Each structure stands twice: as C-alpha cells, then as structure tokens.
C-alpha cells in the first residue's frame, strides 16, 4: 500500500512549496462532444467552427470551463484529496482560448496556511497555473480549501493569509488575440441582446431545469481526471450518496444561462465562487444571473459583463441570493462571480 | 425574465414566415463516437473509414440520423417549445453525406396553419432546410406539430394545409456523389442479403432489445441541442417522468435493425413518421421492419428499399402494426417510413 | 426472421474453420474521450500527446484495452452470442500501438472443440487476429468459451484441446517501435516508482472504488459494438438485471490500478484472464495487483512487469485471491494476468 497516494494532509503543506501535478492532458474534439452531451450548452462560438472563424477565432475554441475543469482536476490528488470543503476561488483568468490538440499541465504554489482553532484541520491557499504544450500560461487561479490534519498533535504552521483581489480588474482581463465581434451574427447566436441591453443590477431567470443523474456527473468528473472518492463511490459517505463535483454544477448553470445570456460567448475570468450546498442525483438544477458590472474593452465590438451566476435546487423565481439573516437562501447551490465577453 | 425565450405560440406563426434558427453546429468525430455509445449501431459504412472509402465515400460520413437530429434540434426553441405533440414528418431528403468538420444551420418556413376546433391550439406546418458551411442544402424536411395558443381568444388564422407527398418519389432521391457498391464487402458488412433478397411485403423481426435509461436519452438529446424541457426535467410533467425525445427511439430502432438489414447502409429519405406512444426509462425497445417498395438506381450497384421501421415496447413477434380497429397496436412506439440504399 | 443472426451454436463450429467478423471499426479521438469519461484512467501516455511524443510515440496511442475491446467485440456475434460463459483468455499480444484513424477488423480460427459430458453444450477455442487498415496484425489472442448446442442430439465432434502457453514468453513481447523511456517524466506521470521499485510477490491495494451504473456499462459495451443481449436488455435474464460485460471490469480495474502503478504505461500482453463472478449496477469495484515477474527489455529504459490484476466487489484490504479450499475468495470479480511496460 505504500505505493499508493494517500493525498497530502494539512501538515504536509508549506508556504512557498511548489507542486507539479500529474497527468498532462490533451484536449480533443471528443471532449467538446461529451461536454455537449453532458450539459445543455448552445453557445454558438464553441458549437460552430464557422461562427468562431467569423469572430476571428479559428480553430474553434472549446468552452473555457473544459480547460478549467481539466486544469483543476489535476490539483485534486495533491491538494484536496483529504479536503473537508472547497472554500473558494479567486483571481482566475483565462489567458488564451484552448483548442483540440492543446495539452494542459498544472503547477500549484502554496500561498497561505491557517490552522483551524479545533486543531484538526486547516485552510490551504494555493495559486495554480495551467500551461500549454509550449509552456505558455493558459489559465491561472487561486483557491482555498479546508484540509484534514493527519495528526491533530502536529504543530500549527505560522498563519499566512494571502491578499486576494475580490474582483479581477477589467484592465487585467485577457481578450483573445484576434477576437472581433463587429460582424457578429445575432441570428445564429440565438438572441438579440447585446452589451448595452444589460443593466447593472438586472436579474435574469434562466427558466429551464435539469434533473441530475449519477452516470452523467461521474462521466463528467472522470473526463476531468478528478479523483475525489466521494464523487464515485457509494461507500465513501455514510448516506451512500455520491456527492456531485461542484464543477458539474458550474457547467450546468453556465449552460442553462444560455436562455437569456446567449451572447455571453467567452468567460474571461472568475472572480469568486462558492459551492453553497451539496448536490446529488435527483436534484433539479435551475439558474439565474445578476449583472454586477459592465465595461467596454479595446477589442473591436467586445464588451465585458461581470455576472453573478446562481444555481439553485428547484426554481426560485424570486431570485433570492440571501435571506434577511444574510445567509444563503435555501436551495442555493452555487454563487459564481465571473467576467464574460459579449458583443457591444 | 424578458430576455429568455418563451417559445412561439400558435398565434405567433404566419404562413410564409421564415425563421433562422440559432446555434450552428459543427459535426465532429466525437459525435460519431457518442452515437456509437448511445445506440447499438454496427453499420460498416459510418463505422469504418476503410469500408467507406471502398464504396467511394471518403472521409467516412456520419450516420444520416446524426445530421437529422442536429438539424431538427435547432428548430425546437422556435417551433415546438410549446408543442402539445409532434404530429408527423414528410418529404425529408438527405442531399449529401455529412462528415466531421461540416457545420449545419437550419432555417424553417411556415407552410401551413390550422387552428383546432377547441380554439386552444393549432397545427403548424413548417418546411425546414439545413445548410452546410458552404450554404449548400444538406437535408430538408417538412413536419407538422400541434402548438398551444398563448391566448385562446386570439383570432384563428386562415386555414392553409400544404399538400405533402405521401412518399418521396424514387426519382427525387439523392444518391451521394461517388457512391459505388460494385466492390461491396459483404463479409465486412456482416450479412449476405442484398437488394434482390428482399421482397416487398416481407417483415423482419430484429430480435434484439434495449432497456432505456434516463442518462442515455438525456445525453443524446443534449448532443442535438434539443431544449424541450420534458426530456430533462422531472418537474415538467405531473408524473415526474422524463419523456424520451422521439428521435432517440428512431435512432435506437434504426440501430437495432442492423440485425436483418445490415446492408441498408444509407438513409436517403424519410417519407413519413409517427411517434405513436411516449417512451420512458425502463422501457425495453425492440424493432421490426417491413419492405414497402424496392427500386434500382442509376448509381453503380446501388438499389433503394422503402422500409417501414416499427419500434415497440416489448417484443412483438407477430409484428402487428394495427389492430382490427385500424388503430396502432399496443406497444407500438414509432412508425417510420423511409428510403435507404443497399447493394444490388 | 430468417435474415437475422441467431449466432452460432456448438455444432456450427469445426476445427480449422475461419470466420471473418463483421463491421470494421475506425478508432477516433471520440473513443479516447469516452474511455476517459467511463473509466477513471490517468495514465500519462494515452492522456497527453506531449508526453507520448516525449517517449517516442506520436501521435499518442489510445489505451490498448480500447483496441482489445473493439477487436473482441467483433467476435461476439459469431462466437459467443449463445455462450454460457466466457472461460478464459491466453496468448494475447499487442503488436503495435493504435492511434485515431486506424481501422480494425477481426478474423477468428477455431482451434479446439470439446463437448461437455452433459451433451447440451461444449467448449469452443478460437484464435482471433485483429488487423489494421494495412493488413498488419494489430493484436491477437486465444479464448475459449462455453457455447450452447442447438440440438442436444447432435453428435459430438472429435475433441481437440489446443496447447496454449500459460504465459507469453518475455521474448515474444512486442515493444512498440521507437519507445524510449530514458527521458521519462515521472512528475508528469504522477508517481516515482520505476521498474526496480517493484518486487516479485509484492501486492498493491489500489484503494479507490467506483460504484457501477447501467448507463455507463451499456455505453462502454456499445462503443465496442458488443451485441450480447444480457448486457442491454432487462428481459434477457430472469432476475431483470443487466449483466455487465466482463471487459468493463477489466478496464475499470486497470484504471483504478493507476494508484500505485501509474508508470505501467503500456499493456504488452495478456497471459490469462478469468471473469470469476458477474457484476451488476450498484456493485462497487475495487482492485489490487500482485507483481508476478519482472524482466528487462532491449528497448531503451523499458522494463516489463508481469502483473496479476484482481477486481473485487467491495474492498479487500487482505488482498486474498483464493480461500483455503483453493477457490476464488468471495467478492473476486476478475483475475487478469498481463505483461506491461514501465520505465527502468
């Protein structure tokens, strides 16, 4: 058994430590097809090589979340195999669109540590960077996760809590080289709403719902080579349920958001994200969005919207994020804050 | 909510109206693989690049039903989101085989309208045309669908019922350029039966059955970007079941028909189709076929069979389409009338 | 019904008979993606084009078991449609890595026959050879299977039991042309353990478990065009369960073995295999391995390990293959003996 990976425990991490994660992974057209089978996505840019070419991107990139899940999955065996909870994301930026044939690998640096007062676990902060086959940065993000200690008696490390930006500054968004929305085909994309049609504060109920199944979330999670046991093994939790990978809910909500945000073609950054409640097979997921900010960019015809994407169990037509007590409302599964590109 | 698509209601359609449907979609090798994972298809031509090249088609086309489902799926948000029932198909012709890299988009023209006597719904007839990335017609079909009225008080439009051919004339079948069955490899294809071995009136019990699952039909239906809620959401129907997309049954029956029709390699046209009963997870689908007509074509070694493909819930060795009362027999799910190409 | 394939019965086979199996099949990137969605595989070589190129293989091969399942699936309609049980494998050798674009077809020769004493069935031994689009051998194997007789009164054939090697001799292993492990990237592969770190007799508990679902095993089994009814049809067995294709368990166990055998990148041969117990949806599969032998090869940096891969229902930390009575221990699903290539 000594040859198998038990994962790292809280006391195995040190600030400044760099971890090279295993299993580089080449993106293929098979990933694009499976993504479309697992999520009801209809965004024209990743769906159509012709549409993508028309806006300056050829070959057609795959959805940014494919790259995110692949890059993220690599960190699981080293960072979160013994996690209690995935606490948050920040400063996630997509540096270039990825296309079939690109190979991703991921490296993480430990940027913070804070033992919990109970002495049995602690919070690990990492900054992860995924590079392509040429060594160029493809995407990067920070996340923090609560990890078990192997030995409650192990001494606490010095507390280091990194300063992370609450929002990626618009000037730090990377616009894909060549992107040009001036000849954008709104009929092909499915909705007429452009940058200027969205008002800060506006909320959009995406209406549609999808009932989750175990086969589908397991297939998705394996595709990203995410190995956390709780997603696959009914013997891993006392209730015999398979906990659904939080990224599955992100992708489901993003796909559902097509209905109302069909022109939000590219995700440029993820500012923050919280997996508020666990999801299981049988739950029906709905989504709503709130427009948080809107800025123009230098790219021709390209605007950026900052959006809150909320996934819920059951539809909430009132689109309530938090109750009067300031806590997340019942049924909220995901609260994701991101920047996306849309034609002006 | 005003930004989301509520779908069209009966009174939103007008004869002569042209609808450009959203989300062009590029076909990939991933679609071919997923199709083979979702349906037990073993037809040699779409399975093998070597076999396809031997009969004059290179690269190997994907199954015609992949193109049909993709092209059809695009019409759902505009035509049948508020449908009561999909009533029928006619005059569906496949103009050229589609290969990975081809991009489809679909346009529909309203060709008929007939309000129901109850005043609460009506029948919409559309002719839909899917074109490839060069603007050439890839396939076309007519269908009619019963759609809810938004407002029962809205006035009835003038009734226009288009004349649709009960059968595509053999002279209108498009034979793929280059198709040549003279060097056809029957051993590779799996059965020795050629054009002349099938007699008009002959029925073939395809023997095998497949029990349906929710994960599989949802993955298939998403792959075609079909958004009808009832397929995905257990909260969309009072019985909590997910209604299976009729096209899933078409593809399942077509794949099952390999056993007895292994040399029916290409679908050239769909003359008519009726989704007789709904299907749900847990149903076991079987299929039988009846030879309706047989004509030679000008292409070398190529004959055309007109076939009735019947899918049933549970096996019916008697292959009974209709009872003495003229109604479809219990258990019939699908009655599809099509033209297909087979070596002479 | 006369046009459908009833499969061969015991008395339909004759020693020396050669069967050309149907449906040549081209491997695609879609197969690679689906394999990664269905099994938790993380081996770096088939996952990454960059990693594969670094060890001399470009384009990146797909996993050997994809080729095995495809080639094997073709034999089912002719050899094992009426099988009582799949009894064993031997002398399986992989002659070259397969890549997307390669087309496989399979031919089998009957090399042995032995009627059972009950007169109602018999054992059929076949040697099967899968060739690529150039006619070169891609892989070959022998297997024996117990097949029903159509007519218990049919005379027994002369008994011929072929001599099959209990183990493929190391000198008969085919090392892929160009394979060079001298610049092997252990960090990318995920574990530091190399050839010399494994001792004959060592056992490795692979720790992780996966709970099986019907949708997933059916999708896998269809992907290989395996048509055995019991895998797909709840009406095919008295208990209403879908029996899981034995190859699904092989692939699941092989993928789980990553945890402890991450550098066992290529399967070179399968010496023997027994499907000890049936598996069904809901079972949770675990795996353990035993090192049976270790030999160096002439290829730069390449060693070969002979491994026993055992899949179990439920985790057996004692890693017990057989009880004191010599019979397989409760819960053992699979006992597979194979040769694999690993960096020295």
From TrEMBL, chains A, B, C:
* InterPro entries documented for this protein: HotDog_dom_sf, MC_hydratase, MCH/BMMD, Thiol_ester_hydratase_Rv0216
Give the superkingdom in one word.
Answer: Bacteria
Can you name this protein? MaoC family dehydratase
Q: Which organism is it from?
A: Nocardioides fonticola
């Amino acid at each position: 058994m000594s040859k198998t990976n038990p994962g790292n425990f809280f006391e195995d991490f040190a600030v400044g430590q760099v971890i090279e994660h295993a299993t580089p992974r080449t993106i293929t057209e098979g990933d694009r097809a499976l993504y479309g089978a697992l999520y009801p996505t209809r965004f024209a840019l990743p769906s159509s090589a012709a549409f993508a070419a028309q806006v300056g991107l050829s070959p057609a990139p795959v959805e940014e979340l494919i790259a995110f899940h692949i890059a993220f999955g690599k960190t699981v065996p080293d960072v979160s195999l013994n996690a209690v909870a995935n606490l948050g994301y920040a400063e996630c930026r997509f540096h270039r669109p990825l296309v079939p044939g690109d190979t991703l690998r991921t490296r993480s640096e430990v940027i913070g540590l804070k033992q919990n007062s109970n002495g049995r676990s602690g919070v690990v902060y990492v900054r992860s960077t995924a590079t392509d086959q040429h060594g160029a940065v493809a995407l990067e993000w920070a996340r923090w996760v609560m990890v078990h200690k192997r030995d409650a008696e192990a001494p606490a490390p010095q507390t280091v809590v990194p300063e992370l930006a609450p929002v990626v500054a618009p000037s730090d968004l990377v616009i894909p080289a060549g992107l040009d929305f001036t000849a954008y085909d709104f009929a092909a994309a499915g909705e007429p709403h452009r940058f200027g049609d969205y008002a800060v504060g506006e909320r959009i109920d995406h209406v549609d719902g999808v009932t989750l199944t175990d086969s589908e979330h397991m297939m998705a999670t394996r595709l990203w080579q995410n190995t956390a046991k709780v997603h696959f093994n009914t013997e891993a939790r006392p209730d015999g349920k398979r906990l659904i990978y939080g990224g599955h809910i992100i992708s489901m909500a993003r796909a559902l958001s097509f209905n109302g945000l069909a022109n939000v073609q590219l995700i440029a950054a993820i500012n923050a994200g919280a997996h508020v409640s666990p999801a299981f097979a049988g739950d029906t997921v709905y989504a709503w969005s709130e427009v948080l900010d809107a800025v123009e960019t230098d790219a021709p015809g390209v605007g950026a919207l900052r959006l809150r994407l909320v996934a819920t169990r059951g539809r909430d037509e009132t689109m309530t994020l938090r109750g009067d007590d300031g806590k997340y409302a019942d049924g909220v599964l995901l609260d994701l804050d991101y920047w996306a590109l849309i034609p002006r």
